[in-house]
Design goal:
The chain is α+β, with helices and mostly antiparallel strands. The protein has one domain: Alpha-Beta Plaits. Helices cover 33% and strands 36% of the residues. A 4-stranded antiparallel beta sheet has the order 2-3-1-4. α2 crosses α3. The mean pLDDT is 90.
Length: 104
Amino acid sequence: MTAERNAAQTWELELDAELLPGAPALTPERAQLLAGLLTGVPGVDLVAVRPHCAGRFVLTTVALEAHDLEDAVDRAAAALRGGALAAGVGPLILVAARSPRATC
């Protein structure tokens, strides 16, 4: 591994996740609770969480320290899933992860 791979950098991501069928819709209050839990995750600098599509989906913007894009997505998805369970939202299905820095 190179030193560049080992150096952590800040990655901004947008995660879109779906609640399981039959789960109650995400309310703005639960979204705020989830955002609060995510800001407590080490290495997380910025969090915004909002429900969309009638509360069936969770749109999360997060900036976090990671070694590369793959590491950033893995860490952000794990934090989102864990936070959703802790906030009483329930399990989530990650539908998309986007980064403005990613290139095709």
